[in-house]
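Form 12-C: Joint structure prediction
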Amino acid sequence: MTRDAALPIAVRQLTKSYGTVRVLDAVDLDVHRGEFLTLLGPSGSGKTTLLMMLAGFVRPDCGSITFGEREVIRLEPHKRDVGMVFQNYALFPHMDVAANIAFPLKLRGVDRVETAKRVEQALELVKLGGYGARRIDQLSGGQRQRIALARAIVFEPRILLMDEPLSALDKQLREHMQIELRQLHERLGMTTVYVTHDQREALTMSDRIAVIDQGSIRQIDTPKTIYERPNNRFVAEFIGESTFVKVDVTSSGCTFNGTPLSLAAQPPQTGPHYLMIRPERLAILQRDPADDVNVLPAIVTAAIYQGDSVLVHASLSDGTMVSVRASASSQAPLVGAHLNLGLNATDTYLLPPEEGVQ
Amino acid sequence: MSHVAGPNADNLRRDALIERLALFSLTGPALLLVATVMLVPVGWLFWLSFLNDAGGFSPEHYLRMLSQPSYERAFRATFEISFTTTAICILLGYPLAYVLSQLPRRAANICMIAVMLPFWTSLLVRTYAWLVLLQRQGIINTWGIKLGLWDAPLALVHNLNGTLIGMVHIMLPFLVLPVYASMRAIDADYLKAAANLGASPTRAFWLVFLPLSLPGLLAGALIVFILCLGFYVTPAVLGGGKITMVANRIATDIELFFNWGAASSLGVVLFILTVMILYVASRLVRLERLLGGGDA
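Section 2 - Result
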C-alpha cells in the first residue's frame, strides 16, 4: 500500500449533544493524507465520540465528514471501509485467529486461496506468523492487540481508527507497541486517527496531536509545538508538568517580581502574562550563567532522594512552588538553602493573560 | 499436603480445617433434605419396580414395557410433544429475548416481569384458564366466529393443540431467561466490530450474534425439553384424555390398577432416558465451548 491510497479526512461543524450536555461543539478537523493524528484529551472530552462518528457508530446532530471527496456523514458503518482497533479489541471469541482476520475478507467475497495468503501476510506483519489456528482466549493481551490490528488492516482500508488500543497493556509492553505501531504506520501509510488520554503516548507516536477538551479542539499541532509552545493553559497543563508564574510585560521587556527576563519572543500584547515553567527545563546553577539564561532565585523547601535523581522543591521569590531535579551524585541541596535556578531564554515562554486567568 | 514444621504450624493447619468444615456444615440441612425426600423415595421406587405382584424379584414390569405397544406410544408421545414444545419455545422465545436484550435495562426489566408473570400463578389455574379460553364455546372460538375469521369452532383443546399451547405458555420463560442472559452478556463492541469490518446488520447477526448466543439457547432448550418430559397436569386437562405422556401413564397405573411396580418402572426408564439426554447435551455444549463458543 502506498501513501496515495490513503484518504484525507475533513470534519466540519461536527456537533453532538446528549440532552443539555454538548459532547462535541462544532468541531473542525483536517487529517492529512497518510498522517498519524492523535486525539488527546481527558475522559469525557469528546475524543472517543469523535472517533465513533468517523466510524459511523454515533450519529451527530449536524456537521460533515468527508473521506477524500466522499461525504460519509450518513453512510452506515459497514459501508465506510475504515479499519478500526477497539479498546477491548472485540475479537470474536467463537472464531480462531485466522477466522477473525479473514472475517472482513469473507464479507468482501475474497476467494479462499487469496484469503489464506492475506491472512498469513497480515499475521507476519504483526509478527505473529503461524498463530492462525490459535483460539482467542489462548492469546496474551499484547497478542490480542496485534491480532485486532491485523484484522483492521487486512482488507487494506485507506483510513485506520484506533480507540485507546494500548490502554489494557502493561507499561513496558505499551511502550514497545507504541514504537511498533508507529513503524507499521510508516510502512503502510494509511491515514490514522488515534485516540488516547496518555500524553506520552501521543507525543511518541503522532505526526500531529489534536488536544480536545469539553467538545472542542484546543490546539492541533506537532508534538514539539504542543509541548513547547502550547496555545493555552489547558494544553500546557494537560501535556507534561508545568508551573505558572505571574510576570509583567511592558514595551521594554518582561519582568518577574522585579527581575528582568529575556524571552524567546516578545508577546504581541503588554500587561500581565503567565510564564510557563517546565520543571525539566529548570537547572540548578552552580556558577554564573551564560547571557541567555534567566536566573530565578529560590529557597529549598524539600529535597527527596529518588534513586536516579533528587527531587528538589523550592519556593520562588514570589512564593510560587517549583520542582527541579538535581543529579543524585552531586551534593544534595539542604532545606532552607538559597539556590539560583536557570531557565534558558528559548524555554522562557509566556501565555497571554486571558487564557492564564482561571 | 506437605507438612511444614515451624512455629504454630499445627494450630494454623487445624484452623484451616475448622474453617473448611464450618463452611461445609452450611450445606448440611439441604443435604439431609435431599437425602430424605429424594434419594430414599427414588431408591424405594427403584426397588419396587423389580418386584412382581407376589412380591418376588422379577423384571416383568420392564418386559411388559417392551411387549405392550401402548407403553411405546406413551414414550413416543412424550418425546414428540417435548420436542415440539421446545421447538415452538425457541421460535417464540429467541426473538423475544433478542428484543428484550436490545432494550434499555429499565424497560427490559419491566418487560421481563411480564414474561415472568405466569410463574406467579398456579400451574393448575393457568391450565384451566386455557380450557376456558380454548374450548368450543370459549372466548377465542366465540370471537373468531363473531368476527368472521372462521365459521365452525376450531378444535383448540382436548387434543394435541391444546396440550402444546398450554405447555409452551408454561415453558416459555424457562427458555427466555437463559437466552436473554446470554444475549445481555454479548459485548456490543462485537457487533460494532462486525459492522466496521463490513458486515450488514443481518450478516452481523448470523455470523456473530447468533453463534455467541448459542450456549444460552442450548441451555434454555435443554431445560425446557427436560421439564416437558415430566409434564402431567397440562396434557391431562388440555389433552382431554387423548394425550398420554409417560407421567399420565404412571398416574393411570397407580390410580386405576394400583400397580406401584409398573408405575415405578416407567419412572425409572424415564429417569434413565433423561439422564442420557443430559449427558449427550452436556457433551454437545462442551463441544460448543471447544469451538470457542461465547463466554456467556
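Section 3 - Comments
Residues 3-237 of chain A form a domain with the Rossmann fold fold (CATH 3.40.50.300). The interface with chain B takes residues 55-57, 76-84, 86, 88, 90-96, 103-104, 107-108, 135-137, 151, 155 of chain A (CB under 8 Å).
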